[in-house]
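INFO  loader      accepted 1 record
INFO  loader      residues=191
INFO  predictor   begin
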Amino acid sequence: MIDPDVKDLWTPTGLILGFQVVLFEWRLERESEVGDKGSVPWLVPSDYVSVLGMLCFVLGVVLLPVSGLVRGGVARWAFGLGTLLFLGQVLREERMKKAKARNAKIGQRMIEMKLYFWTNKIAKGEGRIIPKHAWGSGMLRIEPNDAHGIRGRKPLAFHSPLELPFVIERALIEHGIVLHPTRRMQKYTVT
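INFO  predictor   done
INFO  writer      dumping tokens
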């Protein structure tokens, strides 16, 4: 016998699952069009989150309770998780719609990073340098930019040039900067 509480979850599950399927189908069609134009189609992490949400609904709320493998508590938990994942995707889509284009003056269009390498204590004597010599450590800073809404923040330190990719990624995340893949990135992106 199926728990009546689980049956009560089936109607909202069907509605939310229907919305998720339509959204996911729209994403797949869009990426298919991108592929037809010669670019590399790709799914963003939120698409995988959507698939996970659909699996929560299908497996946790419908199939496993019908088969008798799980009880109502698991179905309610799966429904809650699936709903949260769906809402997260919808809110992400709304956030992307609100990111509107705006005019920017020359000099404000690029997002700039400055890299500083320490040069102190290489040459003997206070305030002296050896030209074109620096330590393999320093600071990375994203420059303030009003057009992009980037405010000045404390620079991030690095202790080896090998740390630079991680420091760059951290700086981009802290400033909320979104990078879009370029054509040249096709050789190492997965479709």
